[in-house]
Write a structure and sequence with these properties.
15 helices; alpha/beta; 7 strands; single chain
Length: 356
């Protein structure tokens, strides 16, 4: 392992990055094999960091391609073999207006479905009615060797909670489980179709099914209800994507230990992303589960924010050393890179791929 050098944090190192994207590296990780070189994974970052990595300012426009081009440049300069992107603007409208402003929101805010009548009146969106052409138009913008990894607008459980409210969902599970099943079916079937559309594009190399399932101590719903309402729809999402020959990454926060067998053996996700030290450090997760599923990211968000760049670099490099001989690991944060993460600490983390 190379010693940490503050020069690693100079953005010029990234603007002049000679490392060429090669999506086969991340495919090898997804297959739990050793990539040809240390490989990075991040769900998404933030606009300020995208601008710094790309070396250019974003000029707001109604067109969607310019911002996506900037994100592609940022991912490429940072050393990623892919760029993450939404397939379209498909989503499920609800009353969570504050979410758009980046504010913390209650899991009971903005609910729009209360009973059978409101369920039937809800304007259920048609995934086929949205424009997915960005996935084709970006073909000419992708550097040679790079692919897109498409993520969803949210997940099955997340959207049901957004539409119904967490407290109301808990009552509804006892009072009207048939209505609960219908709501999950309405959300799940549409997300399956969204992923079916996205997976068909040649530019797309893999997909992310993003759906937070847990608190710090347990799943949001009982394991029984997870298996009754949530897991079957995730199984259909994965089967739909796998039928196209493409892998699927689960991004899910929370304590999921009691459903890991479902994730690996029933749903058959190719990789798991999102780890927190206070739940299970990624080092331990790798030792426990890497023989069944690829481990993505995991350098704890709180650790990245509170530590020095050298400490972040050393932990990241140590994780790469731990996994180098066995494979099935891509380096990244435990969740994502929002604006409050110090830029220098993020750069220290990804610099670790050059220190092995």
């Amino acid at each position: 392992m190379k010693k940490f050098n503050p020069e690693f944090l100079d953005l010029k190192n990234f603007w002049d990055n000679k490392r060429q994207p090669n999506f086969n590296n991340i495919l090898k990780v997804l297959q739990r094999k050793k990539p040809d070189r240390p490989t990075l994974f991040e769900f998404f970052m933030n606009l300020s960091l995208y601008e710094k990595l790309a070396g250019e300012k974003y000029k707001p426009t109604a067109e969607e391609i310019p911002i996506l081009k900037l994100i592609i440049h940022a991912f490429r300069n940072a050393g990623y073999d892919y760029t993450s992107v939404r397939g379209s603007n498909f989503s499920f409208p609800c009353g969570r207006e504050n979410e758009r402003n980046g504010k913390t929101i209650s899991m009971n805010e903005g609910i729009v479905i209360f009973d059978r009548k409101s369920f039937e009146k809800y304007p259920w969106p048609d995934p086929d009615a949205f424009d997915y052409s960005r996935l084709e138009r970006l073909a000419g913008e992708l550097p040679y060797g790079m692919k897109l990894i498409v993520y969803g607008p949210g997940g099955v459980l997340e959207f049901v909670i957004a539409l119904v409210g967490f407290d109301s969902l808990c009552y509804m599970l006892a009072d009207d489980p048939d209505l609960v099943a219908d709501i999950f079916n309405a959300v799940g079937s549409r997300l399956v179709r969204y992923y079916e559309i996205c997976a068909a594009y040649d530019t797309v190399g893999a997909l992310i099914s993003n759906d937070d399932w847990g608190f710090n101590t347990q799943t949001l719903l009982s394991v029984e209800n997870m298996r009754r309402f949530v897991i079957p729809w995730h199984k259909k999402i994965v089967e739909t994507i796998h039928s196209t020959g493409k892998p699927v990454i689960l991004h899910s926060c929370g304590q999921l230990e009691r459903v890991m067998d479902d994730i690996t053996n029933v749903i058959k996700y190719d990789a798991k992303h999102s780890y927190e030290d206070k739940i299970l450090p990624v080092e331990e997760a790798y030792e426990r589960w890497s023989d069944r599923i690829a481990i993505f990211g995991g350098i704890d968000m709180d650790f990245i924010c509170r530590s020095t760049p050298e400490e972040v670099y050393m932990r990241s490099a140590a994780m790469l050393e731990r996994t180098a001989g066995r494979g099935g690991y891509a380096l990244g944060s435990g969740n994502s890179i929002p604006g409050y993460v110090p830029d220098e600490n993020y750069l220290a983390m990804i610099s670790a791929v050059n220190g092995i």
